[in-house]
Write a structure and sequence with these properties.
By secondary structure, this protein is mainly α. Helices cover 73% and strands 4% of the residues. Helix 4 runs parallel beside helix 9 and helix 9 runs antiparallel to helix 10.
């Protein structure tokens, strides 16, 4: 029996594949192939595609079924720009009120991420990077704004980043600068580094999709 949240997991997988360029704009998504590949029934796949259609990630075409919706460079810049604006505001709020205990928590989380980065453990880097930012967002005590950021970051193909050595290096530098800004209670610097973190992410993803020839 399919778990109630299974369709959300399938939607997450498909969303990631689309944003990573594995599923190209205009390509057909066959329910049976997706179900077989993920080891699930057709039902959660169909429900996932309905969700993605509502997000304009896929389109339903007559006699063809579901196809990947158009995706442009500007779409990438827009999504990451939104993420950066929200994340920057949350980081600024953390910087103004962060406690020593909270800063210690973030420092420990970042050290774990640094170890995973040094060991090149891609899946671990992906998980720990997510947890670090989730901790920052939680400390901002801005539930609705954090929720909007969570929705926006669903469109980030995390594995594309965690598997890339250049991104891992820039991520380490961003985290060090961010923690320093928190320690100095420098809201402007915290905002700036967080916005840059997402702006660099947009440029990285655009280059990745350029290299795949996704826009052709």
């Amino acid at each position: 029996m399919d778990r109630p949240q299974l369709s959300e997991e399938v939607a997450g997988v498909l969303r990631g594949r689309i944003m990573a360029g594995e599923l190209r704009p205009g390509s057909r998504i066959r329910l049976e192939e997706v179900a077989a590949g993920l080891g699930v029934s057709i039902t959660p796949v169909r429900e996932a595609l309905l969700t993605l259609r509502g997000e304009d990630m896929v389109e339903l075409e007559p006699r063809k079924g579901y196809v990947v919706a158009p995706l442009s460079r500007q779409d990438i810049l827009d999504v990451f720009g939104l993420q950066g604006d929200i994340a920057g505001e949350l980081a600024a709020r953390v910087a103004t009120a962060v406690t020593e205990a909270q800063l210690a928590e973030l420092t420990l989380a970042d050290r774990a991420l640094a170890r995973a980065t040094k060991a090149r453990k891609v899946a671990e880097i992906e998980r720990l990077e997510f947890e670090f930012h989730r901790a920052v967002n939680r400390m901002a005590q801005s539930r609705k704004l954090s929720w909007f950021l969570h929705v926006a970051t669903r469109y980030t193909p995390a594995r594309v980043y965690s598997a890339d050595p250049a991104w891992r290096e820039s991520m380490r530098g961003d985290h060090e600068t961010l923690l320093a800004a928190f320690g100095a209670h420098d809201a402007a610097q915290a905002r700036s580094v967080m916005v840059r973190h997402f702006t660099d992410g947009a440029e990285h993803l655009v280059k990745h999709l350029d290299d795949l020839g996704i826009w052709a």
